[in-house]
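In response to a reviewer's request, we include the raw inputs and outputs for one of the modeled complexes. The two entities were modeled together in a single run.
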Amino acid sequence: MLTFNDLKRNLKKDSSTLPSLKTALLGDVATQFLAISLKGMGYERNYHIELFEAEFNQIERQVLDPTSDLHQFGADYTIVFQSTHKLLEKHSTMPPAEQIAMADDRLDFVRTLCNTIKGRIVYYNYPEIEDTIFGSYANKVASSFTYQLRKLNFELMKLAQENSDFFICDIAGLQNKFGRDIMFNSHVYISTEMVLSLDILPYIASRTLDVMCAVEGKIKKCLVLDLDNTLWGGIVGDDGWENIQVGHGLGIGKAFTEFQHWIKKLKNRGIIITVCSKNDEDKARSPFEKNPEMVIKIEDIAVFVSNWDNKADNIRLIQGILNIGFDSMVFLDDNPFERSMVREHVPGITIPELPEDPGEYLEYLYTLNLFETASYTDADAERTLQYQVESQRSTLLKSFTNEADFLKSLGMVSEVKGFDSFNTVRVAQLSQRSNQFNLRTIRYTEAELEALEKDEQYATFSFTLADKFGDNGLICVIILKKLDAETLFIDTWFMSCRVLKRGMEDFTLSTIVAYAKKNGFRRIVGQYLPTAKNSMVQDHYPKLGFSKLEGAEGFQFELDIEAYQTKEFYITDK
Amino acid sequence: MEQNEILANVQDIFRDVLDDDGIVLTPETTANDVDDWDSLSHIQLIVAIEKKFKIKFTSKEILSWSNVAEMIECIANK
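The model returned the following structure tokens for the whole complex.
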């Protein structure tokens, strides 16, 4: 981890060309060092943190006064740090009869925060201070500080489940990892009124940026695994599938078993698990197929690459099959040589410096918090299956000489509807995740989508796609804005890259045109806003028959509805 | 450790924390003589010095020094 001093030095670097995140920081203790850390860490993550730092101990005033500097600033993210230290002071000065309501009292205020602040809130939960007034008996005393604090942390989680724009940054978890003596430094506190040590600040800033980056769509989607001495102990080619080290009992085997449990849970959560190994393929597969101690099974692996080519090329191959960015991939390998080779040749990929001792893999990986997310749905869990099905489709495609015959044979069906209580979560999630096939890359939250759905100025469409191999679920979203009586503007068009080259673009456009005709519009305007990721759709509108709007701002394109000729597609409306 | 050696180490820490390789400390140097040596960077310096020399100051000590000599003296006595 970088040091506080490293982060401070970043402030001297030019971040003005980076995308900006308008961020407000509210604390009930002094926050200058935290502010420095957040800005410095923002630079590390390629963001310019445009920070509004409120005078400390002004949280209530800033939040409750609608004319306050905070509300004028209009932050995308409001980071709120109400410290355990100050809460303990409050608890200590309360009449004993009121102590039992401390958690509820604070929760009422947090609810007010949620209702008052626009944009996302990143709220630090409460690392514990055990005051030992009651000792362990505090667990039996509802008014004790320990009891109230744990209740507060628990209830905050419930609040976060109910409010989609309210995110907890789990700094209590950081204290569990590092301990209170690292978290708090009395010199820093006595001299500066700041309760976070210089050592912990980079971690706090990192965890905060993890949340913000996840909301911005920067998430890890795929884990690429080496096998020998990474997923199991020993070398399968030398030792044989029955003699590799994995499994409970004495010895290092259980470290690999627990490591595999962790990977399996990630897979169940929706992270794509792939293998990249220097091995003969049959030897590499044999533990998965034959060794009963293996937790990870062959069906957990979305893409299995095992050969003697170099790993950078193999990772590019995996990336091509999955069609995701390198920056959403994590590569785990015990061999420092392979790590540095891949790091040099595959820019953007994350490669943790695994400790030499496999017994330390997990605790080390916990500190990195690689897989922060801003949403979770049941559909995430089925992702591996979808990618496996995708490779079956590619096999079928090879057996047809004519693409149209192939598409016909798939028997594709799409369900088209607006946003409702069932699909809004998924629409919001796709809005955060879609980078490549995304024409304007506007990220919408659930709350914003619900508001759009009710707004007469907008028309919304979601598309699912199923075929004979399986259901891809919701894969495409359109948001249309009514500019005037004749013109529809395509505010949002994004699509999952899983369904490329199936005629989905033509089907989607025909749906838009049908809506436009029915409602008397005469033209449709689309726009392409370039990002680092979306060059694949720069010619999207011209390819669909739109003509460039000369003189218009940005890349805008127009379609005259009368002149539009339907293209052939093989998807039917459910 | 000799006082001169301590001074050299402390100077390195000042240069690193304040990100200024031009800093030259003498026993007579005070906070007024060094740009950026304010109350906030002071605490960074203290934490860095404690780490480097593996010592712990008391809260009273870190607020009491009026120049570098007193700081060095305090380190030497730990």
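As requested, we also summarize the result in words. The two ends of chain B are 11 Å apart (CA to CA). The interface with chain A takes residues 16-17, 19, 39-40, 42-44, 46-48, 50, 57, 59, 62-63 of chain B (CB under 8 Å).
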